[in-house]
Amino acid sequence: MIVAFSVAPSGGSSSDSVHDAVAAAVRIVRESGLPNRTSSMFTELEGEWDEVMDVVKRATLAVAEHGTRVSLVLKADYRPGHTGELDGKVQRLEQALAATEAEGTA
Known about the structure:
The chain is of the alpha+beta class. It has helices at residues 18-31, 49-64, 85-105, and strands spanning 2-10, 36-38, 43-46, 69-77. Helix 1 packs antiparallel against helix 2 (49-64). The radius of gyration is 17 Å and the shape is elongated. The termini are far apart. The model has no long low-confidence stretch (mean pLDDT 92).
């Protein structure tokens, strides 16, 4: 299963830093040992259902310490029997783009 999620605090004081809250969440993800990557908008995480959802929950609770509320956006790709898809999906996309470009120059 691959999960892309974003967490952000709200309801804290105006001096609270959002990046500190997000860093707390990303720290939980990285310490999980599961394959992951973080971009400017989302963190992607790959693993079994229960372990991925546990990490998302713990990351959300870490962000909750920085405000009175947390916004969580989550998108999941559940495909039993497949692993390594965090990179595999991107590799197949790049191959398809390269093939299309090669056809255009032939």
